Amino acid sequence: MGPEAVAEFIDKNNIDAHFIHLTQEASTVQAAADALGVPPNRILKSVLLLADSTPVLVITNGLSRIDTKQVAGHLNISKKRIRLADPDTTLAITGFRTGGVPPFAHRTRIRTLVDASVLEHDEVFAGGGAPEVVLRLKPSDILKVADAEVLSISSR
User: Fold this and answer.
1) pTM of the predicted structure, to 2 decimals
2) Residue 62: is its pLDDT beyond 90?
3) Which of 75, 74, 112 is nearest to 93 (CA)?
């Protein structure tokens, strides 16, 4: 899967999002922020975690670290039962390579948790399906189409 699948999802769900094609990969928050000329806290990270074997997508801003203790508490499981999905697992579950994972349009529906800090901005930038493609969109659209749960799950 790639940006074409994301574009199809955007069209189907009437999302006001715009693709930005970069001249180089921006698979890190800082690289994307530098390429776009925006602060890192406006760049979103879509990180796949595994709660036991159940995938959970966590979306937070680029300056934040995911607090797995908070995620575990929300999921009512031990922190020891949460781990970061490796790149191969991320690709298999989402359909997208690490560094380009969008907040939606995944191969299968994934439970999605959005850190409250994401809502601090009217417009943010997220993975567009490939490391050199970024989406400019509203956080409210992510919440709507991903049926996301909003909570404080990050630390700076």
Assistant:
1) 0.90
2) no
3) 112
The identity of residue 40, as a single letter, is P
The residues near 142 (Cβ < 8 Å, ≥ 6 apart) are 59, 103, 104, 112, 114, 118, 126, 148
Return the structure tokens found at 106.
């995944």
**Burial letters for 31-48: b for 16+ Cβ neighbours within 10 Å, e otherwise?**
bbbebbebebbbbbbbbb
Residue 67's Cβ-count burial label (10 Å; 0-12, 13-18, 19+) is middle
- Which residue, 31, 74, 32, 66, is CA-closest to 47? 66
pLDDT digits (tens, 9 = 90+) for 104-145: 999 999 999 999 999 999 999 999 999 889 999 999 999 999
Instruction: Identify the bridge partners of residue 51 per DSSP, sorted by sequence position.
Output: 54, 82
pLDDT tens readout for residues 74-86: 999 999 999 999 9
